[in-house]
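Supplementary Data S3. Sequence and structure tokens for construct A.
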Amino acid sequence: MLHELIDPLSRMGIFNFLLCNGDCLFAHCSTELSYIVRRTPFKSAHLKDEDVMVDFSEVTTPNDRVAVVATQPLTDNENWLTMEAGSLWLFHNGEVVSHRSTHPSPVKSLSGV
């Protein structure tokens, strides 16, 4: 499984990554990642590093939903969520499906999961 590969690689240094298979997005937070899920009702967002506003209600439909993952929040007027260091996240259709710690567990599961 993917989470079993992460710990050895993370021990070599900072190892934040995004991996997509065309259907799901995996995000591993080694040190610092944040995310936001945008859905209806869409609002305007103000970029942190530029004086630019984007009105997402003008470029989306009520059925749209998107997750954005970045090292640090990209906007200053939205509620970004910080991922815990050492965690692996699974996004599907713009939603968080699951997340778990990638730190090795001291107790092994009998099922091998």
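Construct B, processed identically:
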Amino acid sequence: MEPSPRRRAGEPPVVAGPYRFIRHPNYAALAVETVALPLVHMAWITACALFPILVPLLVRRIRLEEAALARHSDYERAFAGRGRLLP
């Protein structure tokens, strides 16, 4: 299988698939997984400890990613009205 080609500056952002509903579906899944996986194994203390650590990391990463996307595409216009992690 060939690797997907890199996107070039100025190309429109992807707005199909799960991006129709939220801006960062992968990060939303990561947040759910961080809590759900430990709970499957009854490790509620781990779930409660990991989530507060994850939140500031995700906030920083999302801000950096959105700033980069806004510089190189019409990201802000394409995703206006969509939530970051929740529809």
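Helices lie at 25-40, 44-72, 75-78. The mean pLDDT is 88.
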